[in-house]
Design brief:
- With 333 residues, this protein is of the alpha/beta class.
- It has 2 domains: 164 residues, D-Maltodextrin-Binding Protein, domain 2; 131 residues, D-Maltodextrin-Binding Protein, domain 2 (3-Layer(aba) Sandwich), CATH 3.40.190.170.
- Helices cover 49% and strands 17% of the residues.
- Bound molecules: beta-D-galactopyranuronic acid.
Length: 333
């Protein structure tokens, strides 16, 4: 026979159940693994895609796969403008963005897009990896984008269906630009007719004659096969606009400090990797397009190209904030 009478036993069981329930209420909910979606405009083997994959791998390892990241390469999740909106809404968690399509949303990014700004790659690294990069990252944070690291994107040059040697040759040509007012002004300053188009539409637009040219770095000119339809690459090297590896602020706000540190470190390590791959790819892409029949027109003197950019500087670097950023960039040694 039980030592406890029935009602007493029910009372005890009830108390145990109540205690268990109250414990459950206070115990932290089991941490579910998170699946993060990443956006990349380029193919998986492009330096940026490989950098993003390295980032994802490091974050997975260091969070014991609690944060699992998957990069959707080749613009599978849309073109860059759409991806930026999706990141702001939190439906894309991480991405590699060129700054140009962010110029209109976060005006200080325009300073880094300005033509003939950096003296060399080392100069651009010291600017973006330092206090100026942090200032611009704060403006991006205000629009919902957290910058974790800076990727290289090399120098952008003009490529066209007819040879271009001097600004006068571009006059009236329809040149594709990214969606940015600054890029429209840069192209107008060269005397061209700017045509904003998504990256994914450039090939067919060149092929059908909707545009006469575009502008980009060696790896993009090569990987997109634009060199097959616009065979003249003129080394104007007019902009070295950098890129960011970023995550959505919506995600960032839900991370603890330890997780944030893991993400930052992994992103910076991925940038070191990307920059190394980038330097190699710039050379191999140049070789590939030349082997594929492109004609490289070397610009020996960039003076005339630089001279036509004066109105662009007057318009985009004239507010006190932008003038100050420009001064600090120029003073960065
Ligand atoms: C590439 C850049 C892309 C995109 C593209 C473009 O160099 O990596 O993010 O900005 O240029 O011109 O649209």
């Amino acid at each position: 026979m039980s030592l406890l009478s029935k009602p007493r036993r029910r009372g005890l069981l009830g108390a145990v159940a109540a205690a268990a329930l109250s414990l459950m209420a206070f115990a932290p909910a089991p941490v579910a693994a998170q699946e993060w979606r990443g956006w990349n405009i380029h193919a998986a083997d492009y330096p940026n895609g490989r950098g993003m994959d390295r980032f994802a791998e490091l974050v997975g390892q260091r969070t014991n796969n609690r944060i699992r990241m998957r990069t959707f390469h080749s613009a599978q999740l849309g073109q860059q403008d759409e991806a930026i909106q999706q990141m702001r809404l939190g439906t894309i968690d991480f991405a590699n963005f060129n700054l140009s399509p962010l110029n209109n949303l976060a005006p200080s990014t325009a300073i880094l897009t300005l033509p003939f700004l950096f003296r060399d790659v080392g100069h651009s690294h010291r600017v973006v990896d330092g206090a100026i990069g942090e200032d611009i990252a704060r403006d991006l944070e205000a629009i919902g984008i957290i910058t974790l690291a800076w990727y290289d994107a090399g120098a952008r040059s003009l490529y066209t269906t007819r040879p271009v040697r001097a600004p006068a040759d571009v006059r009236g040509m329809k040149i594709r630009v990214q969606t940015s007012d600054l890029w429209i002004d840069i192209m107008r300053a060269m005397g061209a007719n700017p045509t904003p188009l998504p990256f994914g539409e450039v090939f067919t637009s060149l092929q059908s004659g909707v545009i006469d040219g575009a502008e980009n770095n060696w790896p993009s000119y090569e990987s997109t096969r634009h060199f097959e339809v616009a065979k003249f690459y003129t080394t104007t090297e007019h902009s070295n606009v950098p890129e960011i590896l970023a995550i959505s602020r919506q995600r960032w706000q839900r991370l603890n400090e330890a997780e944030r540190a893991i993400l930052r470190d992994a992103a910076r390590e991925s940038a070191v990797f990307q920059r190394q791959l980038w330097a190699e790819r710039e050379k191999s892409s140049r070789d590939r397009v030349v082997a594929g029949g492109a004609t490289v027109i070397e610009v020996a003197d960039r003076g005339p190209w630089q001279a036509v950019m004066e109105p662009v500087y007057a318009k985009y670097a004239s507010t006190p904030r932008m003038a100050d950023l420009l001064k600090r960039i120029r003073e960065t040694r």
